[in-house]
Amino acid sequence: MQVLIVEDEEALTTLLRYNLEAEGFVVDSAARGDDAELLLAERIPDLVLLDWMLPGLSGIELCRRIRARRETERLPVIMLTARGEEGDRIRGLGTGADDYIVKPFSVPELLARIRALLRRAKPAHVSDRLAAGDLELDRTGHRVRRGGEELHLGPTEFRLLEFLMLAPGRVFSREQLLDGVWGHDVYIDERTVDVHVGRLRKALNGPRQPDPIRTVRGSGYAFDETFSLGA
Predict the structure, then answer these.
(1) Distance CA 118, CA 133 (A)
(2) Do 177 and 189 contact (CB within 8 A), yes or no?
(3) Are 83 and 58 in contact (CB under 8 A)?
(4) Where would I find the H helices in the chain?
(5) How far apart are CA 94 and CA 159, in angstroms?
(6) What span, in angstroms and rounded, lies between the C-alpha atoms of 2 and 197?
(7) How many Å is the maximal CA-CA distance in the chain?
(8) Torsion angle of alpha carbons 172, 164, 62, 14, nearest 10°?
């Protein structure tokens, strides 16, 4: 799951990144509101941690723009601010923030609020089991079954299938898959994605079985959103 931190205090961004990555999140960050808006136009995360006071574009205005855009109108937003007065909290929530936490704050409390918000907004992301048609992925046991029979996937193929199943129908570019499955700090060729998609398909698909992975020419790959209907 991906979190975008929009915060101009470098030390706080570093602290949040460290703790979020330790919890298994993929983290992007921006120190300016306008830079964050550009990032959101390129890729939509699962949650935004948004500082109230930012250079370039305020957190309040950015939150308004997030809610005004169809693609991000339901994007979970937690606002971080030094403003603790009741009027400020009401204003922050009134612009569309889902939660509000005052600096200085407890990192464990923030992590608990993130998990609680994601459970409400994206229940599939915190479920131990993903299923579509005759395909079932057990996230805790790291097992995949199709038609009741267990399949043998390598760790990378498992992560790739999990990543795609979390967003059925959404087309991911090779670069997005590299970031989401391998991580930002791993430098490998984009063609590696094609190799692992091929291995995943070989492991998933038997004779005359429909392929749940859809290739979108010139764009990337998606988990076929119609697979559960035809399987």
Answers:
(1) 25
(2) no
(3) no
(4) 10-22, 33-42, 59-68, 86-94, 107-121, 123-126, 155-165, 174-177, 191-204, 227-230
(5) 38
(6) 21
(7) 64
(8) -100
pTM of the model: 0.55
Take residue 205 and report the two structure tokens written for it: 């698909």
Distance (Å, whole) CA 113 – CA 88: 19
**Distance between CA atoms of residues 195 and 137, nearest Å:** 21
Alpha-carbon distance of 209 to 92, in angstroms, equals 51
Q: Which two tokens stand for residue 150?
A: 């267990």
How many whole angstroms separate alpha carbon 60 and alpha carbon 80?
A: 11
Dist. CA 125–CA 58, nearest whole Å:
30
Distance between CA atoms of residues 73 and 67, nearest Å:
4
Structure tokens at 33: 């509101």
User: For residues 39 and 45, what is the distance between their CA atoms, to the nearest angstrom?
Assistant: 9
Residues 45-102 pLDDT 10s = 999 999 988 998 988 899 999 999 888 988 999 988 876 555 565 665 667 888 888 8
Residues 59 and 33: their CA atoms lie apart, in Å, by: 6
200 three-class SS: helix
C-alpha span between 107 and 47 (Å, rounded)? 16
> Residue 15 CA to chain centroid, in angstroms?
20
Q: Hey, what are 31's tokens?
A: 């120190």
Work out the pLDDT band at 186, boundaries 50, 70, 90: low
Which residue carries 């749940």 as its tokens?
Answer: 212
SS3 category, 79 = strand
